[in-house]
Amino acid sequence: MPAKKRCQLQAEPRCNSAVLRLVGQCPHCRAEFCSAHRMPEHHNCQNLESCRQQAFEKNKAKLESERTVASKMAMA
């Protein structure tokens, strides 16, 4: 039986917890983490800022495309 994969957190002290099978891989840096460090904020993900910027730009474009413009009414 192969050894269990361990958390790849690079901080001190080293985390020796087992990796989560389904959700333990970070979608941004592709490293594998335990339940305590699986979120990008918790393992200081190097790609987190670019991810935030992409999400911001995507949401901005969506909001701008859905913006409604009130028609100006002429004063009588």
UniProtKB/TrEMBL annotation:
One of its GO terms (molecular function) is zinc ion binding. Keywords: Metal-binding, Zinc, Zinc-finger. InterPro entries: AN1-like_Znf, Znf_AN1. The keyword Metal-binding applies. It holds the Pfam family zf-AN1. Residues 1-53 form the AN1-type domain. This is AN1-type domain-containing protein. It comes from Ceriporiopsis subvermispora (strain B).
